[in-house]
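Q: Hi! First time doing this. I have a protein sequence and I read that you can turn it into a structure. Is that right? Here it is:
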Amino acid sequence: MQFSSHLLESAVNAFSRLPGIGKKTALRLVLHLLKQDPAEVNQFSEVIARVRSEIRFCRNCNNISDTDICSICSNPMRKQQMICVVENIRDVIAIESTQQFNGTYHVLGGVISPLDGVGPDQLFIDQLTERVKRAGTEEVIFALSPTIQGDTTIYYIQKKLHALPVRVTTIARGISFGGELEYADEMTLARSLQNRLPVENYVSSR
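A: Yes, that's right. Below is the predicted 3D structure, encoded as structure tokens:
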């Protein structure tokens, strides 16, 4: 792809580094920005800069937040004794869109995957167990993608929580094995949350 401007080429290369954005799409985005009012483009760039510099991660659950504690953890209307364990922030957004869950979350930051060099120490698992002990949690719900890595993570954390007086469940498997949670439709996610199962029943049936 040939460019008549080095600035245009640099902008296209920058946009194309975003996930799912190829060179042609990047070019369309850059050309679109060139047609916009300079004030709108400046506002756009300021928002992007603020996202990177000002967004925080909740010190309680690791969800994205504007403050030290996210709006979900600080909401008195949420069931604080119920924690839904997810792999990443996209999964929080997916479950919240169902409007069927009124507890809190814990973002692990990934799943255990030895082949990818991801072990338990690289995830927020110890933070979860300490939180369960400290907060008197009544139920931990696993909402991890139904993959080998997701199941390995569930099994590992279940063992860590075994001695604690907490109910441990997993969402019903309306989601196909090997699928990604964030791509499940809202109805499937909602039904899976409503029909969650004791995790020991699921693990023992594997």
